[in-house]
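Pasting as-is:
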Amino acid sequence: MAKPLQNTYPVLPVKLRRLSEAPALALAALAQRLFSACRGPSRHWLALPATICIASLTGCASVGPTFIQGTRTDYNIIIQQTNEQELLLNLVRLKYRDTLYFLTVEKVASSVEFLREVGTSASVPVGGNSTFTLGPARLSINEKPTIFYSPLDGERFTRQMLAVLHPDVLVLLANSGWSLERLMALSIQEMNGLKNAPSAAGPTPSFEPAFKDFRTALKLLRSLQVQRRVEVGQIRDTGRSHLELRFLPDAAADPDALEFKRMLGIDPHVNEVKVLVGLGHGGPESINVVPRSLVAIMNYLSQGVEVPARDVTQGRTTRTVAADGSAFDWQTVLDGLFKVSSADSAPSGAAVAVRYRDAWFFIDDRDLETKSTFSLLSQLMALQAGSTKREETPISFTIGR
């Protein structure tokens, strides 16, 4: 007595990374339907190559997009996080008078290997009854990332770090909505003779710097900016361009505008004030500014790093002395701008944290002012160190937000 036709299709679980098992299950169902449609011993051999083709194609179309969806965001997030950690690490290094060093992720190349295995067997006995078996099916994806690091060093990078910021950068960032107070506190060391902690542009000084009048003037300017009574832009005069601080008509009698002009020695009736690079007082119709370099900005912000008390006691960092002989608090200079805390254990709720010299240094995720300044520093790094070629900034005016 002839045995009935036996069709078995055992499919083992598909081994995938970030890929659904649905393709393998669909393959089994499709193969079974295809095999059942073939009648007679000879037609089983027609089903076999078709089934193998299905096995080789199933799942291929979705592998690439699925892999990108599962990995691109991960790479993006981790590179951004490590960039912030490296920037914070270098600010901490400056506080300890250690050497700066940057290592950038130059390129990430990731190859994906898609492996497919389908086992098949068929037998056609002399009696005419046949057996066809599909399985097991195995699918796997192997990722092979290659990461290229590039140190930022050499003469070109050093010159970029030491070169003072071009005034065009102030216009560009002011047009992007940054606070004039924050911008000028970081990038300007002196304004019409008012000092902005010039000794903080290098290693931590031993004595309290001069800064109070400068910060008072900036707060007045920020008040005018919020009220939309002042704007900054670039104009071209006799073939040369310069910055201009323009007081709007409704600021003529504003107490903040009058006090700002008084502090900087500007004629109270002058509403279009040139901003020029230079030392000392610029006169009744202009403001002389001394821009900082990128490394000077980083030194300035590094004063906001609070180191463990043991490192101050043991002389690993400089202790700054106030005018009355007490320990000087750098937050009187950087209040509302920048603060980095330290702890012996890994902090919770940190926006960015890095371990250095047996301590953790971090920026609190709730400290929005520090996070804003840190973001601004990142943009200044990109603008200053990203290219040596400078393009002319369009003539423009903006009312800051």
